């Protein structure tokens, strides 16, 4: 069967920061070892901010839809669906702007698109075969975020809490949580929910076998 007949399966996995969406995405990936799978992260598509001062970059609201270059993300996802390779941008979290480097990405038969706002844009939603919302309580998400940012990003507890209360939490309730209505599947408690992950991977296998 030709590539044109075997359109890649696109699975969108979203949820708030610290919800466990990355764990769910990796669980799906690990449950399908005999298939070619691409984990495609929205975080790679933060806008280029090289025209801004470093101070202005620090003040960017990274939880707002406008923080992302959704035009480029949509274009690249469509190319992958058409079995065309892309050069994916790399975001530099230290300089808070896009790196000069890119990552060459070949198309795969399963694409897992993961990010906090992937269901916010209709163009992206229309390209997805399965839309998943990972639903985790605010208290659990902030604890996970504190642990991650202190261990992996060297941030202070006070700066994490301040950012969470002033930006992350209000943006979650304004922009991210409302996209739950577009989801085909809602997964409570993220990567800990093995039943939901098993159901998801069974559905994906079924689609692959019937293509």
From TrEMBL:
The EC number(s) given in the record are: 2.7.1.48
* GO molecular function list: ATP binding; cytidine kinase activity; uridine kinase activity
Family, similarity comment: Belongs to the uridine kinase family.
**Catalytic reactions of this protein:** uridine + ATP = UMP + ADP + H(+); cytidine + ATP = CMP + ADP + H(+)
Q: What class of enzyme is it?
A: transferase
Quote the subcellular location field of this record. Answer: Cytoplasm
Q: Supply the name of the protein.
A: Uridine kinase
Q: What is the lineage of its organism?
A: Bacteria, Bacillati, Bacillota, Bacilli, Lactobacillales
**Which key words are in the record?**
ATP-binding, Cytoplasm, Kinase, Nucleotide-binding, Transferase
Q: Which gene encodes it?
A: udk
Please give an example of a GO cellular component term from this record.
cytoplasm
Q: Which residues bind ATP?
A: 15-22
């Amino acid at each position: 069967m030709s590539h044109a007949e075997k359109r890649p399966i696109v699975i969108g996995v979203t949820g708030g920061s610290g919800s466990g969406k990355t764990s769910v995405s990796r669980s799906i990936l690990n449950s399908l070892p005999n298939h070619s799978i691409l984990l495609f992260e929205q975080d790679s598509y933060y806008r280029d901010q090289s025209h801004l001062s470093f101070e202005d970059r620090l003040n960017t609201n990274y939880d707002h839809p406008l923080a992302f270059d959704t035009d480029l993300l949509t274009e690249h996802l469509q190319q992958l669906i058409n079995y065309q390779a892309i050069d994916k941008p790399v975001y530099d979290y230290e300089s808070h702007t896009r790196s000069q480097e890119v990552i060459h990405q070949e198309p795969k038969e399963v694409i897992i698109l993961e990010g906090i706002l992937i269901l916010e844009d209709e163009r992206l939603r229309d390209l997805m075969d399965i839309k998943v919302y990972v639903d985790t309580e605010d208290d659990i998400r902030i604890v996970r975020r504190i642990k991650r940012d202190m261990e992996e990003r060297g941030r202070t507890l006070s700066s994490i809490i301040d950012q969470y209360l002033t930006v992350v939490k209000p943006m979650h309730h304004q922009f991210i949580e409302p996209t739950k209505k577009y989801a085909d599947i809602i997964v409570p408690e993220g990567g800990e929910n093995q039943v939901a992950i098993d159901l998801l991977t069974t559905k994906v296998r079924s689609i692959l076998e019937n293509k």
